[in-house]
Amino acid sequence: MNYYFGFDGGATRCRLAISNEKGNVLYKDEGASSNIYAVGKEAVTSTIKMLIDKAIKYLNISKDDLIAGCFGSAGLSREKDISFFKNFFSSFLPNSKVYLCSDAEILLVGGLNSLSGLCLIGGTGSVCFGRSESCEIIRSGGFGWRLGDEGSGWHIANSAISRTLKSKEGRDLPTFLDRYIIEFFKLEKLEDIISLVNDESTTKSDIGNFAKYVTIAASENDQLALNILREAGLSLFDLVLSTVSRMPKNHEKKLVLAGGVITKDKVVRESFYNKMKQYLPDYEIYLDSANSALDGAILIALSLI
User: Fold this and answer.
1) 122 with 242, same domain?
2) What is the percentage of the chain residues whose pLDDT exceeds 90?
3) How confident is the model at residue 174, as a pLDDT?
4) By the 8 A CB rule, do 15 and 29 touch?
């Protein structure tokens, strides 16, 4: 019998699944991070070897029985990283056909339970991926918080701080977000936020974690908070529209949503949905993923043979 493997490689853990020819998962396990920039190449390859060796021992099969696999890992888009893993797998599993991709691609395939469609991630960051039936990948956004991430939690929080300062000078919508800024960042007065944000020790997460207070203020009908969240929904829609405009015309019109901002914030999601209904009404939108990213890796592996 032939077997297939799928890896979901994250920054903190690497998960493996083995399936038979029918896609029935027979084995699952997980190990340490597969991010070579977090733990180094030697540690990553050691983890992969350990997981595969444990699996074949448990299933009483050989490495030659693994005829195809998919390795999806966070940040796997650089050519030199792809080349490294390609060389590794060709040496470690010479009889396996291995597909290398980003974690977003396996999330898309698993979330839709389909080899083509779109995935919008609106969480800490923001990015949209499209995948055609010919495995062509179209991407919009994902530039990181310094260059983009519009519609993300960080962008919402940063906009709230910036625009609250402007509001208090009469240059923006009225707001009581200043109370939440002072409370959350433990300030004596609003103006103290300026030095805190510009301090080199202040991280993206320090700012981004404030986004939940923008959601709270919006639920209390704060006009600035509502405007910021609605604009976040529009920004996320722009990512989808950009991706769709560059996809093949015959792609599957399905979109799965992922990330806390787009899936949990009702104001953001309503703003996004309204634009989708207006400009892309024929798309099926999935708020809940059909399957996991690991399932997506297995589905891709099965498609290789």
Assistant:
1) yes
2) 77
3) 96
4) yes
β-pairing, 126-131 with 137-141?
A: antiparallel
Number of domains in the chain: 2
- Quickly list DSSP for 290-303: SS-HHHHHHHHHHH
Q: What angle, 0 to 180 degrees and rounded to 10, lies between the N-to-C axes of helices 223-245 and 153-167?
A: 140
CA-closest candidate to residue 5, choices 42, 43, 41, 58: 58
Q: Which helix (H) or strand (E) holds 6?
A: strand 3-9
Is residue 145 helix, strand or coil? coil
pLDDT in tens, 250-265: 888 999 998 889 999 9
Q: Residue 53's domain spans which residues?
A: 3-113+290-303
If you average pLDDT over residues 184-198, what whole number do you get?
Answer: 95
Q: What CATH number corresponds to the domain at position 167? A: 3.30.420.40
| Cβ atoms 8, 293 nearer than 8 A | yes
Q: Closest Cα to residue 214, out of 266, 149, 273, 286?
A: 266
Q: How far is residue 201 from each of residues 87, 195, 196, 197, 198, measured CA to CA in Å?
A: 39, 11, 9, 9, 9
State the DSSP H helix or E strand holding residue 223, giving kind and residue range, or none if neither: helix 223-245
Q: In whole angstroms, give the CA distance from residue 33 to residue 11.
A: 5
Q: Which two tokens stand for residue 139?
A: 């991407």
Model pLDDT for residues 88-116, shown as the tens digit of each residue: 999 999 999 999 998 889 999 999 999 99
Let me know whether 136 and 223 are in one domain. yes
Q: What per-residue confidence (pLDDT) applies to 261?
A: 94
Q: Are residues 83 and 126 part of one domain? A: no
Q: How many residues does the chain have?
A: 305
Exposed/middle/buried for 114, CB within 10 Å: 0-12, 13-18, 19+? middle
SS3 category, 173: coil
My answer on whether 127 and 214 are in the same domain is yes
